[in-house]
């Protein structure tokens, strides 16, 4: 489901100044040559984002097993990492496909010949639809599902695909939204009208229903979980209506589920007849020490073992201008901060450290209450992998981020 040879070619890319994680001493080497030299974490500069090989393997296996047990499919949201090598690992572990959000991300996927893509968004750009039509016509093994939430969107897609001379219909899902949410129809009557418009468009084929419950809740409180359940029950109601009206026949896709409420998706939608329930969890592979650690269903008893954070930040103390203040050399350009600030975990070579990061600027973090000295390197727990990967084009993978002397065992290439 992905061009493994093309992914393997990433190992032949030459390292140079473009990759801020790579030391100058490695410039000119290929990725494989660099890894063969047995590099250590101590040879890398700061600021730095790293991944943990053991945690990645644990999370990959844990989520794949959970989906198998629950009887649902998984199309991980690839926009989290935009890393074809990680997509390949997810597909090799049994993923149904890869989810993406827009045309530029889809082009990355097609460059690596990902065979099944779910676009969790409306794709209305005429030039982009023309390109997609060409991809579908040229590759019978390629499948792409997009979303629509209005009759106007259906008309725009149909017009663009007709103009492009599309021979294969584009599969679409009617998107159901919710009050105060993002896109998606707000009522079942509109959803049925959109579905009928799709059925009347020869360039489109209705393949099911899509939606995202994560915009309707942001924690695991009882009222939030109830709001998610109500939304999923509306998806189920729409599914039955489309079946009853003959607009959906045979096996159909029913997709929801980020990384926060996928257990509820499986519980509410999993028993629907002839439904291919597809989760789109993206953050599970990397997980975190912040938002997802607190909200993941596997941390709330929905599975036998929790996920583990596979990402860490590393930043050096570059100033102690006040008795209670240390400045680190990592900031907004290097580390995620939108779902919680980095949390100090340990000092390299010395052990656990207390303290609080109270603010971040573009290139600095303000660390207070920590017994650290100028020149020391602090490992940071991070929150929200979706806004961590986009800051790095090449991310070192460590054998064990908790070891006394971590070794670099891989480099993950991203394409944002």
TrEMBL record:
Superkingdom of the organism of origin: Bacteria
Protein family membership: Belongs to the DSD1 family.
One Pfam family cited in the UniProt record for this chain: Ala_racemase_N
PANTHER family on file: D-SERINE DEAMINASE, ZGC:162816-RELATED
Protein name: Amino acid deaminase
Location of the D-serine dehydratase-like domain: 310-399
InterPro entries per UniProt: Ala_racemase_N, D-amino_acid_metab_enzyme, D-ser_dehydrat-like_dom, D-ser_dehydrat-like_sf, PLP-binding_barrel
Keywords assigned by UniProt, alphabetized: Lyase
């Amino acid at each position: 489901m992905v061009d493994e040879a093309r992914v393997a070619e990433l190992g032949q890319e030459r390292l140079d100044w473009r990759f801020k994680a790579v030391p100058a001493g490695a410039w000119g080497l290929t990725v494989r040559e660099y890894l063969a030299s047995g590099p250590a974490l101590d040879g890398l500069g700061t600021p730095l984002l790293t991944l943990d090989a053991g945690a990645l393997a644990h999370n990959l296996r844990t989520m794949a097993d959970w989906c198998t047990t629950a009887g649902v499919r998984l199309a991980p949201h690839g926009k989290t990492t935009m890393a074809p090598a990680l997509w390949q690992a997810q597909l090799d572990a049994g993923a149904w496909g890869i989810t993406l959000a827009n045309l530029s991300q889809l082009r990355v996927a097609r460059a690596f010949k990902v065979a099944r893509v779910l676009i969790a968004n409306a794709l209305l750009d005429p030039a982009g639809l023309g390109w997609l039509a060409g991809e579908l016509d040229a590759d019978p093994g390629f499948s792409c599902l997009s979303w629509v939430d209005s009759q106007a969107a259906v008309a725009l897609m149909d017009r663009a695909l007709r103009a492009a001379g599309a021979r294969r219909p584009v599969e679409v899902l009617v998107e159901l939204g919710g009050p105060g949410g993002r896109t998606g129809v707000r009522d079942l009557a509109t959803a049925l009208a959109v579905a009928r418009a799709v059925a009347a468009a020869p360039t489109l084929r209705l393949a099911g229903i899509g939606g995202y419950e994560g915009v309707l809740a942001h924690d695991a409180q009882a009222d939030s979980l109830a709001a998610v359940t109500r939304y999923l029950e509306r998806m189920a109601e729409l599914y039955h209506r489309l079946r009853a009206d003959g607009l959906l026949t045979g096996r159909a896709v029913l997709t929801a589920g980020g990384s926060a409420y996928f257990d509820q998706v499986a519980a509410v939608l999993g028993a629907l007849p002839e439904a291919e329930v597809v989760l789109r969890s993206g953050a599970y592979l990397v997980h975190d020490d912040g938002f997802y650690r607190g909200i993941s269903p596997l941390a709330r008893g929905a599975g036998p073992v929790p996920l583990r954070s596979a990402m860490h930040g590393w930043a050096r103390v570059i100033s102690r201008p006040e008795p209670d203040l240390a400045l680190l050399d990592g900031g907004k350009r290097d580390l995620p901060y939108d779902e919680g600030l980095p949390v100090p975990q340990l000092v390299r070579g010395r052990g656990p450290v207390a303290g609080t990061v109270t603010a971040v600027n573009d290139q600095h973090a303000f660390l207070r209450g920590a017994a650290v000295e100028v020149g020391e390197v602090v490992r940071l727990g991070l929150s929200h992998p979706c806004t961590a990967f986009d800051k790095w084009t090449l991310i070192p993978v460590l054998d064990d981020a908790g070891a006394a002397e971590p070794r670099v065992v891989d480099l993950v290439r991203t394409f944002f």
